[in-house]
Design goal:
By secondary structure, the protein is α/β, with parallel strands linked by helices. Helices cover 39% and strands 22% of the residues. The strands form four sheets. Strands 16, 17, 18, 19, 20, 21, 22 and 23 form an eight-stranded antiparallel β-sheet that branches. A six-stranded mixed β-sheet has the order 1-5-4-2-3-6, sandwiched between helices. The longest helix is centred in the C-terminal third of the chain and has 21 residues.
Length: 560
């Protein structure tokens, strides 16, 4: 099958010369991998290696995806439909964004195209500000440098939830061959006002909105120092501007302020990884800074390293979320019916903090699109959005953005750390204070790489094994309940109740001491993910317990 695809590409007279040259240099194994399938478009859009082939990110695979998304938008029957398009600092991002705009404009959908690299949360904001029908971001987040990707949004600035994404996938499957999709040239579309480049107005309006989240904007910042790095990504300009304009003493990691598609200074441009902070910590040590903040390349995630008696300690996403909730619930006026959103793999600590203050907590499936969807449901109700976050370093304080927003987190984390420093504490000490009050919570995540079709089949096999087995105890702890999000059922004490979340191939086990674990396939990478969480009266006991649960779960996985 793949051989016919290869021949078709080689015989296409209009093929970009750089792709033709790449094809001529590929060996049989490389050709098979590039052509054995079409690049998958899932509920989170698509992501893949840049290059020639049906299983690669290039203008042809992108045209087909855009054609399907355009047909979905046109099916909504909106008068004067439009999309906003943003892109990151990766290889080909600018070209792919322009190609997306050209497909949209050719099919009668006006494209508002940012004129420079732009944070993903600003795209979400812009969709709502411009009252657009949808949005597109060309990004592969913190994937390796040879990847790029494509994410799509609805009119609320929220990534498409599965039901809507399935409609787009259906339109893509019915689209013409990628080589047959006609695209008008850029100048013609600009002259027809079907492609419009955005100026700095959106930057200004977005930053004004971000600044509004501050609880104590005028607190004393004289003795507080923060180091900021965008890890060569899209937050460089606005992140620095935001901290400067709000009065923070900010030191930028100049080597990483450069939009570098190769991410030259880091092994992985991921703020969840300690090595991503190497340059930031080096600068922080020189300046004796209180906090190091890193955003990922598309600026939706944020990570913190805290100066704790001269040593910089990385916080987990769960810990940062708990700290932000603790700070907000103790210092911000609480709404009568405030709601906090997290996901089913988020630590219970933040939920316990929120509930202790009378806030409602709603857990969604993994993925910020589900938090955005829930936020919209509050619009015409008596309830009020208070905070949303997930364990994978994503936070939103005010929902003028319906996605993870590292700029909001950048400002609030700086304010929070400064506030506690003025009270004589660092964030590690505050976290200890939280643990003493609510118990010691420890979480862990295991990634099992399972690539290709065989890997996907193996992941299904593992999940089906757990789904069918009757697991009553794990390391001496009783299984209190099992939640199957594919069957949308909760099994507890012999009773079965319905789960009102969308279908997803995810299993969650709740144990009788408050511990839990979750198994799910990754939405963006060929991995099986196992999340484990627990709580105990001491850190040492919690760590011991989580190690035992993890060991037992992995033993079952390995047996499959």
């Amino acid at each position: 099958m793949y051989i016919s695809n290869v021949e078709k590409w080689k015989n296409f007279s209009g093929l970009l010369e750089e792709l033709r040259e790449e094809l001529s240099n590929m060996n049989e194994k490389e050709l098979e991998d590039a052509f054995y399938t079409d690049l998958g478009f899932g509920t989170g859009g698509m992501r893949g290696i840049i290059g020639a082939g049906t299983n690669r990110m290039n203008i042809y695979t992108l045209r087909k995806a855009n054609y399907g998304y355009a047909k979905f938008i046109l099916s909504l029957k909106v008068k004067n439909p439009s999309v906003v398009i943003a892109y990151d600092s990766r290889h080909k991002s600018k070209e792919f964004a322009l190609e997306s705009a050209k497909v949209m404009g050719t099919l009668g959908i006006k494209a508002y195209l940012f004129n420079k690299i732009t944070p993903t949360p600003e795209l979400s904001f812009a969709v709502r500000y411009l009252k657009a029908t949808g949005g597109i971001v060309v990004t592969a987040s913190h994937n390796p440098a040879n990847y790029n990707g494509y994410k799509i949004y609805d009119s609320d600035g929220c990534q498409l939830v599965p039901d809507l994404a399935d409609q787009v996938i259906e339109e893509i499957s019915n689209a013409p061959d990628a080589f047959e999709i006609f695209v008008e040239n850029e100048n013609e579309l600009v002259s027809q006002n079907m492609v419009e480049y955005l100026d700095d107005l959106i930057d200004k309006k977005y930053l004004e909105a971000v600044k509004s989240i501050a609880v104590y904007p005028k607190q004393n910042k004289e003795d507080f120092k923060v180091v900021f790095t965008p890890l060569h990504g899209t937050a460089a300009y606005l992140g620095k501007k935001l901290l400067n304009e709000t009065g923070y003493n900010v030191f930028c990691v100049e080597e990483q302020m450069v939009p570098d598609p190769n991410f030259t200074t880091v092994k992985s441009p991921n703020p969840e990884v300690m090595s991503a902070f190497d340059y930031g910590i080096k600068l922080a040590e020189k300046e004796n800074a209180d906090l190091v903040i890193a955003t990922d390349p598309d600026a939706d995630r944020v990570g913190l390293a805290v100066n704790n008696e001269g040593k910089y300690q990385l916080l987990t996403g769960n810990q940062t979320g708990a700290l932000l909730l603790y700070y907000l619930t103790n210092n911000k006026p609480l709404p009568k019916q405030g709601v906090v959103f997290n996901t089913i793999v988020t630590s219970s600590l933040g939920a316990d903090i929120a509930k202790s203050k009378g806030l409602e907590v709603i857990s969604t499936l993994t993925g910020f699109k589900f938090i955005g969807e829930q936020a919209k449901l509050l619009e015409n109700s008596s309830k009020e959005f208070f905070f949303g976050y997930e364990e994978s370093y994503g936070y939103v304080v005010k929902d003028f953005v319906r996605d993870k927003d590292s700029l909001q987190a950048l400002l609030l984390c700086s304010e929070m750390a400064c506030f506690y420093k003025n009270s004589g504490k660092n964030l590690i000490q505050v976290l200890e204070e939280i643990f003493n009050k609510f118990g010691y919570y420890v979480e862990d995540l295991v990634n099992i790489a399972l690539e290709g079709k065989e890997g996907a089949d193996k992941i299904d096999e593992i999940l089906n094994h757990f789904r069918k087995m009757e697991l009553k105890h794990i390391q001496g702890l009783a299984v209190l309940a099992k939640e199957d999000y594919l069957e949308q059922k909760r099994f507890k004490n012999g009773e079965v109740t319905n789960i009102s979340l969308p279908k997803s191939n995810v299993l969650k086990y709740l144990l009788n001491d408050g511990s839990w674990f979750v198994l799910r396939p990754s939405g963006t990478e060929p991995k099986m993910k196992i999340y484990v969480g627990t709580k105990d009266s001491s850190k040492e006991e919690a760590i011991k317990k989580i190690a035992k649960i993890k060991e037992a779960v992995l033993a079952i996985v390995k047996s499959v």
